[in-house]
């Protein structure tokens, strides 16, 4: 069963790179979207190709498929895939209820308003639960933003960002302590602090100043002289 | 929207700044124009051009194409088309390919100086189909100047864009024009345009040629794509090369920036290449590349490329004053300054901009940039204005619906892109406030900063995270690249500000001086030997 799926996605990828401007592949691409949802994979190129074809043939547009594409794009954050998809969807279509909801959710995520996001997502569970892995993907994005920003993040901030509390949060933190190098600390006010792993964004001194070095090709220019 | 720029595609004004002298009905009905009359100068022109093409004298072809054609157009064909292809065919042995080339120039002239009718637009499409068809079959055995080959692809995409605009304006069309649209619904259809460009890229195997060149197995860039030794045709190769840029352009017109950049991937714009041999292709490549990166929020990349090309134009535009592309060069120059201004307001990295370019930018846009940085309602009006002025002419690619009520929907695509762009600008609204505060401190507590900014602490935390998110774009490989000149990190409750120091390129400086001195020493040694 797995290999069959692999073969389907291989063919679709080929179609997209070799023969993308062809209305005949529209239904293949639609099937591929469904496959991405069920097997929790993702292909921006294939989805953009489909959205383009919808632009060329507005009569064949499918709202459920487009909604799925947008949800998958949200899950790809921090990449800007969601806006890339919106650029290809006509304005009148974006006025429809489901699209407006997704745009609002995207706005909350783009502006790091996690509490409002999770509140709204809870209300719109019916739209979102068609795509498995949604919650985990957004939590990964939230942690990404926290890792850019914080060396030490208070437990409450983390809880709000990933929408987990209490015992589940303890388990979640334990998991990341084991796997992602998180460290627990006690703050001055005796509340929990999570120390996030070092990277070049929250520890700017780690930023590799690649421009201080000289690219090798440039150095080769003086080799004739040195010899 | 507070836009003073007339977005409507007056196909003349946007290209050569000359108002149409013939009415919308088409020039061929003008009094005094006889399509079958061939003046002597035209006779000489086609005979000589035909001979030079047969003899593969690329230099002469170029002189005639750039020079004589323009001069004759200026002198004799200001308000009329050139003689019809049927009239000149006898002088060139009725050569099929030459006639296709002549017709391509014929239509280009009509688009540039007159106003094409619906029928002429369709006929031009047919001509391109035949011309590309011949090239794709590999039957063409000429070497043509790169300028001409670029102009062909550029014009092809331009006429497509123009047609999409034309057929989206249904309100004032005559019965005849609507009939034509319905009858020739295949003309300039988006699949055809994209597939021709794609076919040229594939059939020419240009990506393989560029790959092999990187490994030293092929000469391409070194000879500007020409084959001086073997004399094989450069037409398919170069059309394939320029079609990559054509595909980037079409995808930008559709709003698909990601795929557009992928189409250009085989061309390495950090190096010199064939794309910058013809200045028109150089500018078009960088303009669209920069614009796509702007919409993908990769501001640093956009700023870098705009800076390079604007510096280039500043230095070399004087050499192109006599060229027929001069107006277009100037127009694109102005548009790119506007885009650069936008990028710098969204991502203040003025250190990436060269001194001379910066002073030009200040001359043109200092006031507007100050306004944009304020992020109030006036600021959005300025963003709107500059975006409208500088953006490509977005299109609605689908076929028109020819039923009542007939509307003009040619601005729909543009409005969507503008709306989404301004939406992004709005999301970055609070960031400049944060930036100005952070510049003043090396450390500050969340509580204090929140008080200064007059927001509560949780809101401040979201603003700071937004800043981090927006200032770190994700590139095509999924890597996170920082955009900001001003950075910070938070440890529990304290914000620590880190300002990046301007980078001094010692290594590069020393290398350049070493090479310069070596040059001088060898000069001196040569003198001694004499």
From TrEMBL, chain A:
CC terms in the record's Gene Ontology section: eukaryotic 43S preinitiation complex; eukaryotic 48S preinitiation complex; eukaryotic translation initiation factor 3 complex
Keywords on record: Cytoplasm, Initiation factor, Protein biosynthesis
Molecular function GO labels: ribosome binding; RNA binding; translation initiation factor activity
Superkingdom of this protein's organism: Eukaryota
One Pfam family named in its UniProt record: CSN8_PSD8_EIF3K
PROSITE patterns linked: PCI
Location in the cell: Cytoplasm
PCI domain span: 42-201
Statement: the UniProt record of this protein carries the keyword Ribonucleoprotein: no
GO biological process: formation of cytoplasmic translation initiation complex; regulation of translational initiation
InterPro entries: ARM-type_fold (IPR016024), CSN8_PSD8_EIF3K (IPR033464), eIF3k (IPR009374), PCI_dom (IPR000717), Transl_init_fac_sub12_N_euk (IPR016020), WH-like_DNA-bd_sf (IPR036388), WH_DNA-bd_sf (IPR036390)
Quaternary context: Component of the eukaryotic translation initiation factor 3 (eIF-3) complex.
Function description: Component of the eukaryotic translation initiation factor 3 (eIF-3) complex, which is involved in protein synthesis of a specialized repertoire of mRNAs and, together with other initiation factors, stimulates binding of mRNA and methionyl-tRNAi to the 40S ribosome. The eIF-3 complex specifically targets and initiates translation of a subset of mRNAs involved in cell proliferation.
Similarity annotation: Belongs to the eIF-3 subunit K family.
Protein name: Eukaryotic translation initiation factor 3 subunit K
TrEMBL record, chain B:
One Gene Ontology term from the biological process aspect of the record: formation of cytoplasmic translation initiation complex
Key words, A-Z: Cytoplasm, Initiation factor, Protein biosynthesis
Subunit (UniProt): Component of the eukaryotic translation initiation factor 3 (eIF-3) complex.
Region (Disordered), start-end ranges: 1-32
Domain (PCI): residue spans on this chain: 305-504
Record-linked HAMAP family: eIF3l (MF_03011)
Predominant cellular place of this UniProt entry's protein: cytoplasm
Compositional bias segments (type: Acidic residues): 1-11
Native source species: Ensete ventricosum (Abyssinian banana)
Function: Component of the eukaryotic translation initiation factor 3 (eIF-3) complex, which is involved in protein synthesis of a specialized repertoire of mRNAs and, together with other initiation factors, stimulates binding of mRNA and methionyl-tRNAi to the 40S ribosome. The eIF-3 complex specifically targets and initiates translation of a subset of mRNAs involved in cell proliferation.
Name of the protein in its database record: Eukaryotic translation initiation factor 3 subunit L
Family, similarity comment: Belongs to the eIF-3 subunit L family.
The keyword Manganese is assigned to this record: no
UniProt GO cellular component terms: eukaryotic 43S preinitiation complex; eukaryotic 48S preinitiation complex; eukaryotic translation initiation factor 3 complex
Compartmental location: Cytoplasm
MF terms (GO), sorted A to Z: translation initiation factor activity
């Amino acid at each position: 069963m797995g290999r069959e799926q692999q073969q389907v996605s291989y063919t679709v990828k080929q179609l997209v790179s070799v023969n993308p401007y062809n209305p005949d592949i529209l239904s293949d691409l639609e099937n591929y979207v469904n496959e991405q949802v069920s097997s929790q994979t993702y292909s921006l190129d294939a989805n953009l190709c489909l959205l383009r074809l919808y632009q060329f043939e507005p009569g064949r547009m499918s709202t459920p498929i487009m909604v799925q594409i947008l949800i998958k794009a949200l899950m790809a954050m921090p990449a800007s895939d969601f806006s890339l998809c919106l650029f290809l969807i006509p304005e009148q279509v974006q006025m429809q209820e489901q699209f407006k909801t997704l745009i609002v959710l995207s706005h909350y995520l783009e502006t790091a308003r996690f509490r409002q996001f999770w509140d709204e997502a809870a209300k719109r569970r019916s739209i979102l639960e068609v795509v498995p892995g949604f919650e985990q993907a957004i939590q990964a994005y939230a942690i990404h933003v926290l890792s850019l920003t914080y060396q030490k993040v208070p437990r409450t901030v983390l809880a709000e960002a990933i929408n987990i509390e209490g015992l589940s949060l303890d388990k979640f933190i334990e998991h990341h302590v084991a796997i992602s190098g998180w460290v627990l600390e006690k703050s001055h006010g005796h509340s929990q602090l999570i120390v996030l792993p070092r990277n070049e964004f929250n520890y700017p001194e780690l930023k590799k100043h690649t421009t201080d070095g000289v690219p090798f090709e440039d150095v080769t220019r003086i080799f004739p002289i040195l010899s | 929207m507070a836009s003073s720029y007339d977005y409507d595609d007056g196909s003349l004004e946007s290209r050569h700044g000359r108002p149409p002298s013939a009415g919308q009905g088409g020039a061929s009905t003008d009094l005094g124009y006889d399509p079958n009359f061939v003046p002597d100068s035209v006779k000489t022109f086609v005979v000589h051009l035909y001979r030079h093409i047969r003899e593969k004298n690329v230099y002469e072809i170029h002189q005639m194409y750039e020079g004589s054609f323009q001069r004759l157009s200026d002198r004799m064909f200001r308000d009329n088309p050139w003689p019809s292809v049927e009239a000149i065919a006898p002088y060139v042995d009725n050569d099929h390919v030459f006639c296709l080339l002549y017709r391509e120039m014929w239509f280009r002239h009509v688009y540039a100086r007159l106003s094409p009718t619906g029928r002429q637009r369709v006929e031009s499409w047919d001509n391109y189909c035949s011309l590309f068809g011949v090239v794709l079959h590999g039957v063409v055995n000429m070497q043509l100047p790169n300028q001409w080959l670029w102009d062909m692809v550029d014009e092809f995409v331009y006429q497509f864009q123009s047609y999409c605009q034309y057929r989206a304006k249904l309100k004032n069309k005559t019965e005849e024009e609507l009939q034509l649209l319905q009858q020739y619904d295949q003309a300039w259809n988006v699949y055809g345009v994209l597939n021709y460009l794609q076919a040229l890229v594939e059939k020419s195997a240009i990506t393989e040629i560029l790959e092999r060149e990187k490994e030293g197995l092929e000469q391409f860039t070194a000879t500007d794509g020409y084959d001086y030794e073997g004399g094989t045709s450069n037409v398919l190769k170069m059309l394939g090369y320029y079609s990559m840029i054509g595909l980037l352009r079409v995808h930008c017109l559709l709003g698909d920036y990601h795929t557009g950049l992928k189409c250009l991937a085989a061309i390495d714009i950090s190096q010199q290449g064939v794309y910058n041999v013809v200045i028109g292709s150089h500018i078009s490549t960088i303009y669209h590349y920069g614009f796509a990166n702007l919409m993908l929020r990769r501001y640093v990349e956009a700023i870098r490329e705009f800076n390079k090309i604007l510096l280039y134009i500043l230095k070399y535009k004087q050499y192109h004053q006599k060229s027929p592309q001069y107006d277009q060069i100037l127009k694109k120059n102005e548009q790119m300054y506007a885009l650069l201004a936008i990028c710098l307001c969204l991502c203040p990295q003025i250190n990436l901009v060269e001194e001379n370019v910066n002073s030009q930018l200040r001359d043109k846009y200092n006031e507007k940039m100050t306004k944009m940085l304020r992020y109030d309602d006036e600021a959005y009006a300025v963003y709107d204005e500059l975006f409208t002025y500088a953006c490509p002419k977005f299109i609605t690619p689908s076929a028109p619906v020819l039923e009542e009520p007939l509307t003009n929907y040619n601005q729909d695509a543009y409005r969507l892109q503008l709306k989404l762009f301004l939406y992004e600008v709005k999301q970055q609204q609070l960031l400049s406030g944060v930036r100005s505060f952070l510049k003043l401190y090396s450390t500050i507590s969340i509580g204090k900063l929140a008080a200064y900014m007059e927001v509560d602490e949780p809101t401040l935390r979201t603003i700071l995270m937004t800043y981090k998110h927006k200032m770190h774009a994700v590139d095509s490989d999924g890597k996170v690249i920082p955009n900001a000149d001003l950075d910070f990190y938070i440890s529990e409750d304290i914000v620590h500000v880190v300002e990046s120091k301007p980078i001094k390129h010692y290594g590069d400086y020393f290398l350049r001086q070493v090479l310069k001195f070596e040059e001088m020493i060898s000069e001196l040694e040569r003198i001694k030997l004499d």
